[in-house]
Amino acid sequence: MKRKGKDENIKLKPLSAEQFDKVYNQNFDHLFLFAIFIPKCDELSKNIIAEVFMNLWKKWNKFSEIR
């Protein structure tokens, strides 16, 4: 796999709500298993994951380029 150089950027495509839901649902279980170790509380861990994804959704357009 060829690595991108310092000056090359990765463009993020806009996501529809359906695509974002798919990403959320595909990753929730893995993120939950990771998040549960921090607060040791199921509900708090679920809320943390939901908050992260809500912020990601709100700010998605700001992530037009990753350097």
UniProtKB/TrEMBL annotation:
One GO BP annotation of this record: DNA-templated transcription initiation
Xref: SUPFAM superfamilies: Sigma2 domain of RNA polymerase sigma factors
UniProt GO MF annotations: DNA-binding transcription factor activity
Superkingdom: Bacteria
InterPro entries named among the record's database cross-references: RNA_pol_sigma_r2
Protein name: Uncharacterized protein
Species, as recorded: Marinoscillum furvescens DSM 4134
